[in-house]
């Protein structure tokens, strides 16, 4: 059974991401966990325990309300609530270590740079520090069956086949076309060899490789996505260049200013 961890701060953005995930995976009989992390910014007050108890109560209350809303839309979905004290990163790390979810889902507001993702700047910390597949859903995104997925790539192969599994599962379930796109730069790559290695991860899948030019990586990829009417963007976060080129704060500001498409971020080294 597919296990999906959804992060929430009870905002409309978080709810939209949760609904997107439910609609996308409910047909696969997925098990959804809705997680809210709460933490104290101070610890020296004599009222800490009282405040912590109040925060726990509000967290549990909010989760019940959110699940009620989600179940009205997807009554067949199995959703449990997780209220955890601690920093978001620590809480998510702990949950992944104990439960090994197949996917982590969070929302982005799409109002400004990455610092304004759902849960504040913590969302970027999730993307950087949580080595698990992450689906980032823009505030305005409405679920559509992904007929086309654009996979932004630096043509590096992944270390393990399982890294590609979240994309493979979506492609297999929805019979999606998978469009790999590489922004040409000065670095030499044996394209045929690279394509062969990547394609080997996706047997019996409609795969294409596309090469585009442009100094602005994000703008070039976004243009390609829009021109091809794709519903989703995927990429692998390697520890080096390509991910940082896209998610460097100055570039990310462009990418999330008015995001339209969910992004599936994979990690080459899984937790």
Automatic annotation (TrEMBL):
Top-level taxon of origin: Bacteria
Occurrences of domain UspA (ranges): 1-138
Pfam families xrefs: Usp (PF00582)
InterPro entries: Rossmann-like_a/b/a_fold, Universal_stress_UspA, UspA
Family: Belongs to the universal stress protein A family.
Name this polypeptide is given: Universal stress protein
Species annotation: Plebeiibacterium marinum
């Amino acid at each position: 059974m597919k296990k999906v961890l959804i992060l929430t701060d009870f905002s409309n953005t978080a709810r939209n991401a949760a609904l997107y995930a439910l609609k996308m995976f409910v047909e696969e009989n997925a098990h959804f966990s809705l997680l809210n992390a709460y933490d104290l910014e101070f610890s020296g007050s004599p009222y800490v325990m009282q405040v912590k108890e109040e925060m726990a109560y509000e967290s549990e209350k909010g989760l019940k309300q959110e699940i009620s809303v989600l179940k009205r839309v997807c009554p067949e979905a199995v959703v449990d609530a997780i209220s955890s004290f601690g920093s978001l990163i620590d809480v998510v790390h702990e949950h992944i270590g104990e439960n090994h979810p197949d996917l982590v889902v969070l929302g982005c507001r799409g109002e400004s740079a990455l610092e304004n993702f759902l849960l504040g700047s913590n969302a970027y910390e999730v993307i950087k520090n949580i080595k698990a597949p992450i689906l980032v859903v823009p505030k305005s995104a409405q679920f559509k069956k992904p007929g086309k997925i654009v996979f932004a790539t630096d043509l590096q192969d992944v270390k393990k086949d399982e890294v590609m599994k979240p994309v493979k599962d979506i492609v297999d379930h929805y019979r999606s076309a998978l469009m790999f796109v590489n922004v040409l730069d000065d670095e030499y790559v044996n394209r045929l060899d690279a394509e062969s290695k990547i394609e080997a991860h996706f047997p019996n899948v409609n795969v294409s490789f596309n090469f585009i030019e442009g100094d602005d990586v994000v703008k070039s990829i976004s243009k390609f996505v829009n021109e091809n009417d794709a519903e989703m963007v995927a990429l692998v976060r390697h520890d080096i260049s390509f991910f940082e080129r896209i998610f460097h704060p100055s570039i990310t500001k462009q990418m999330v200013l008015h995001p339209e498409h969910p992004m599936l971020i994979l990690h080459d080294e899984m937790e």
